[in-house]
Amino acid sequence: xxxxxxxxxxxxxxxxxxxxxxxxxxxxxxxxxxxxxxxxxxxxxxxxxxxxxxxxxxxxxxxxxxxxxxxxxxxxxxxxxxxxxxxxxxxxxxxxxxxxxxxxxxxxxxxxxxxxxxxxxxxxxxxxxxxxxxxxxxxxxxxxxxxxxxxxxxxxxxx
Length: 159
Prior knowledge:
The chain is α/β, with parallel strands linked by helices. Helix content is 24%, strand content 23%.
């Protein structure tokens, strides 16, 4: 029998189809692995409701379970809602190396807080950046431009 830890590690290597340098473990989308009798249940939480990547992630997790010869299923859990606080430090570093500014800080608790924050350019490191659009290449990212190197870049939003 394959241990829950071994299954978690193998399934955790499934890549995010929207940002392929990240795994579902890096993102914190993989929430758990447990045995229910002879069946393994892998729990995942989408980064936001309606995330189109979840169907492919589910399929890749099922393929991984099959490759391990494990009888299992994938369960999607919406509560508690996913937050960028669940992203690993390694995942945030991978985002920067890939050219996407990682989320900064932690999610707001207790209501909205009006702040004007700058995001460091993942290409040259300059804090002199400007948000061009609240929505970037995917809904979980915003589009920014560096005023120093003039390059556009995505920023993974803090949620």
